[in-house]
């Protein structure tokens, strides 16, 4: 098994020894034109012939793994990379923790692994579809480039998962790989698998919230899979995480820049009216946080889950940074959950293994709280009295034990009538979307930024802010 040398000249760049596996290579080369057709139909509209300053993975070593250059998106080198490992891999959690990891799929885990991989894979093209119109209202060339960078890397993540399906799942895997190109985000007949990936991402406030909150779910799912006892999955997802960090950066700093600009506009306006200055008011930003944070919480799955328990017991999926924990069996321990019982909020202990989705959600929520603290420091520094918050994890849920109840953002039980009367104050509304679309006109002049967002602190790969990140006129 080759694992560190990257074959960059191959039609499909890779470090998985594709050249030595002609059958697999042929199958993937057959999938390639279908993928490109999907990209053409469902990827970013109208920018296919524009050179974009993109980074491409060219190595799997920790330093210098990426190369930056102007590339047209359809010519992007989508490759298949997995992280090298020095030591022999071990199963990291569950009943068999400490035993050698699997290099082939154990028959008894085949269905579960297929489901895990397909579910992860489906999110990658879905997000590209959700974001396909955003180039037409980009606030700057810098942001336009970041959007396209995220898009091509989601495309590469699809490649990473399709490689696993083709290599380890035979005929079933090839069928799954084809279906990944047939489902469509938001389609009534053939929707994407998970809820958040069927929600429209109409404008850049949603794009930044999506990359902040929904890509961050992706980070935690990938991190849990990077602990898998199925070694190829663990090492593939580990490498995906290096790219994912940029997507999270785009989202977190994008929201930070909007918040900073809104605080400036609040100071400029004699009445502190941000909208009067063409900016995005803080209530609207809060509703956007509430909307995307809660849809992203749903992605972690049910609070009490026998599937989650089985995946952990089998060593298929670990906790966040499982390898750094003291014990890896999670037996004889309980997790205390808030549940609704007899119309009241109360507590209940469940076996820890059954609460593994909630344990992962805890790690995610903590990370989101950190970002909120950072944004609130931005508000403080800009002299604004506003503070943004994360809603309770019970609020506005569509999956899990809170789905059939109504909660306010503080997490208190409310009635259906109270929800109806207040929801327009709590989550993104059609009127919000209309307003945002009305102010989001494209800014394509190098170094210029839309009025509703502050400039970033620095450019990409050492380039200045007025660099031509996307060449719209050749
Ligand atoms: Fe991804
Ligand atoms: Fe991502």
Summarize the structure.
This protein is mainly α.
What report would you give on this structure?
- This protein has helices at residues 22-42, 110-130, 141-168, 170-180, 204-225, 231-268, 282-298, 306-314, 356-381, 416-426, 430-439, and strands spanning 51-57, 66-72, 334-341, 344-351, 406-407, 413-414.
- The chain has a single domain, classed as Ribonucleotide Reductase, subunit A.
- The protein is mainly alpha-helical and 474 residues long.
- Helix 6 (231-268) runs parallel beside helix 9 (356-381).
- One fe (ii) ion binds next to helix 3.
The CATH homologous superfamily is termed: Ribonucleotide Reductase, subunit A
Number of strands: 6
Q: How do the strands of the widest beta sheet line up side by side?
A: 1-2
Which spans have pLDDT < 50 for at least 5 consecutive residues?
none
> Would you list the SSEs in sequence order as H and E?
HEEHHHHHHHEEHEEHH
Give the overall shape, derived from the CA principal axes. globular
Assigned CATH class: Mainly Alpha
The radius of gyration over CA amounts to 23 Å
């Amino acid at each position: 098994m080759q694992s560190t040398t990257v074959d960059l000249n191959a039609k499909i760049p890779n470090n998985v020894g594709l050249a030595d596996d002609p059958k697999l290579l042929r199958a993937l080369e057959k999938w390639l034109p279908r993928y490109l057709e999907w990209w053409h139909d469902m990827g970013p509209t109208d920018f296919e012939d524009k050179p974009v300053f993109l980074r491409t993975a060219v190595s799997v070593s920790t330093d210098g793994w990426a190369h930056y250059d102007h590339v047209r998106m359809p010519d992007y080198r989508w490759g298949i990379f997995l992280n090298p490992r020095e030591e022999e891999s071990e199963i990291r959690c569950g009943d068999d923790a400490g035993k050698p990891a699997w290099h082939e799929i154990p028959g008894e885990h085949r269905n579960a692994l297929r489901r895990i991989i397909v579910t992860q894979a489906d999110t990658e093209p879905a997000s590209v579809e959700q974001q396909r119109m955003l180039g037409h209202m980009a606030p700057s060339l810098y942001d336009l480039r970041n959007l396209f960078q995220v898009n091509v890397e989601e495309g590469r993540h699809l490649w990473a998962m399709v490689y696993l399906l083709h290599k380890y799942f035979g005929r079933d895997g090839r069928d799954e790989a084809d279906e990944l190109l047939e489902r469509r985000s938001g389609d009534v007949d053939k929707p994407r698998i998970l809820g958040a990936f069927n929600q429209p991402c109409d404008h850049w406030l949603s794009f930044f919230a999506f990359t902040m909150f929904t890509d961050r779910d992706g980070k935690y799912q990938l991190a849990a899979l990077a602990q898998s006892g199925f070694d190829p999955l663990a090492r593939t997802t580990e490498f995906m995480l290096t790219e994912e960090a940029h997507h999270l950066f785009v989202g977190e700093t994008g929201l930070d820049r909007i918040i900073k600009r809104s605080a400036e506009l609040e100071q400029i306006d004699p009445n502190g009216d941000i909208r009067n200055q063409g900016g995005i008011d803080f209530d609207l930003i809060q509703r956007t946080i509430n909307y995307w944070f809660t849809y992203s919480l749903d992605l972690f799955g049910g609070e009490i889950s026998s599937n989650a328990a089985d995946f952990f017991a089998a060593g298929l999926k670990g906790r966040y940074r499982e390898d750094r924990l003291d014990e890896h069996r999670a037996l004889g321990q309980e997790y205390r959950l808030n549940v609704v019982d007899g119309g009241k909020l109360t507590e209940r202990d469940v076996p820890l293994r059954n609460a593994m989705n909630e344990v992962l959600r805890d790690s995610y929520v903590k990370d989101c709280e950190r970002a909120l603290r950072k944004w609130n420091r931005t508000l403080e520094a800009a002299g604004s009295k506003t503070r943004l918050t994360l809603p309770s994890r019970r609020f506005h849920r569509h999956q899990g034990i809170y789905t059939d109840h109504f909660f306010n953002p503080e997490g208190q039980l409310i009635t259906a009538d109270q929800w109806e009367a207040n929801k327009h104050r709590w989550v993104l509304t059609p009127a919000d979307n209309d307003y945002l679309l009305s102010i989001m006109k494209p800014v394509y002049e190098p170094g210029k930024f839309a009025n509703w967002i502050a400039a970033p602190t620095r450019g990409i790969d050492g380039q200045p802010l007025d660099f031509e990140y996307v060449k719209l006129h050749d």
